[in-house]
Amino acid sequence: MYENAFNRIEKDLRAEEGIANELDYVEQISWVLFLRYLDALEAERRDRAELEDREYTPIIGGIFRWSEWAAPKLDDGTLDHNSARTGEDLVRFVDEQLFPYLAKFKSAATRPKTIEYKIGEVFTELRSKFRSGYILRDVLEVIDGLSFNTQAQRHELSELYETRIRRMGNAGRNGGEYYTPRPLIRAMIRVTDPKIGETIYDGAAGSAGFLCEAFEHLRQPQLSAAEWETLQTATFYGQEKKSLAYIIGIMNMVLHGIEAPNIIHTNTLTENVMDIQERDRHDIILANPPFGGGERKEVQQNFPIRTGETAYLFLQHFIRKLKAGGRAAVVIKNTVLSNTDNASVALRKELIESCNLHTVLDCPQGTFQGAGVKTVVLFFDKGAPTRDIWFYQLDPGRSMGKTNPLNDADLVEFVELHRTRETGPKSWIVNRTDLDAATFDLSVKNPNAPEAEALRSPEEIIADMLARDAETADILENIRGML
After folding, report:
1. What is the pTM of this model?
2. CB contact at 8 A, 202 and 287
3. Architecture category of domain 175-434 in CATH
4. Distance between CA 178 and CA 287 in Å, rounded?
5. Long-range contacts of 107-113 (CB under 8 A, 24+ apart)
6. Using one digit for the tens of pLDDT, what is the confidence trace for 463-473?
């Protein structure tokens, strides 16, 4: 049912002139889904209040309730077409009344960690791109038919939403910034092994894939009410700079079952890392920060190692956001292991001396769709310097691409071998004492790989060619003598 609903919506949106690409599609379906989810949440809270014999004050009231403007019903449960807005009337209501009303929730909320504040932020950051009220009416009717009542239903919706996020990433441009392959995320989570009661942080949250997968990892049927409350309110924390990614991240977490996600819309790198206090730190950091971008000089002043490379700034941020004894897994481009510029060398030195960089996962080309550089995953703990590093070179045995992406089976061996740090054809250990004291070079050089045949010098090649020419001349002379 849900797959058919999403396909119908997609067909409608292709005819909407205000929606041009996959990014627009995910953005626009997000705000409509969000309001439908809020309607279901309100119904659930109202029923709970009735059972407990207490009054319930709705979050969204009056004409702005879903049942008033989006899906007014007759007594038999069918849509009341006479009172349902459509056409220009619907577009004008959404643009001029609904969005401004919802945006005010941000200033009216008592604190950021509330669903009211999230509503205000979402509708402050985006706008409706629907130009046809008839298409919007069709979309509203389809989404009104979706149910959020059971965990199974929410799971199916979240899976379909994830599919759309992945397609948005594959569409290229900045969409790819919001999507990290879920098999890689799950492997990172299995290695860091978060526990109930620990906090998990992503300072470059994007579509919140790390936080959603960590929630799925920790959510178990036997959780107590107190543990469930901890998961809901005091476990997952994120920050995201870009408006679209922020909206998608909020919606993704909501669909996975987190009612009021602790994601803040802010540029993480504007925080001075020297001002980070113990209360700001976390037990687990899981992240894939953007790389290749540039930050302004005033932002670079917030870091001891100053550079315009965003990935390097994020890595410094993560090192300082980690609690003593905390664990981190961070995706970063592989050149951070070998570049010889001052910032790269200083960053490797800081990481090795302030943290235990125990594992480097070398990912193959094509792990990230459309990425022009290779990536590695750095696994490190806070509190003790590095003694030795276990490298694992991931080799799925095939060319990676859009039609042949990374899957969970590709990472089973890595996760298993990580426990014992076993060495073999694809894994090896580098001791801290063997590193170059001047450069701290951590280049991925598999000592177990078959040695490539040494290339011959130009002089040797020319000498061989001349020798063959002389041999050929002798043969031709002999043949001439036989004639």
Report:
1. 0.83
2. yes
3. 3-Layer(aba) Sandwich (3.40)
4. 11
5. 112/264, 113/233, 113/260, 113/262
6. 667 766 665 66
CATH of domain 2-149: 1.20.1260.30
DSSP one-letter code for 275: G
Tokens 């899981």, residue located:
286
Long-range contacts of residues 66-73, Cβ cutoff 8 Å, at least 24 apart: 66/35, 66/36, 66/38, 66/39, 66/144, 67/39, 69/93, 69/98, 70/35, 70/36, 70/39, 70/140, 70/144, 71/140, 71/141, 71/144
List pLDDT tens digits, range 257-292. 887 789 988 899 999 999 999 999 999 999 999 877
Q: Domain spans of the chain?
A: 2-149, 175-434
Token readout for 318 is: 């993560």
- Looking at this protein, which amino acid is placed at residue 194? P
User: Would you say the CATH fold of 175-434 matches that of 2-149?
Assistant: no
Q: What is the DSSP string of 312-339?
A: HHHHHHHHHHEEEEEEEEEEEEGGGGT-
Which two tokens mark 337?
């292991």
Place of tokens 């979050």: 59
Given the structure tokens 């177990």, which residue do they identify? Answer: 448
Is residue 358 a contact partner of residue 418, using CB atoms and an 8 Å limit?
Answer: no
Beta bridge partners of 390: 359, 429
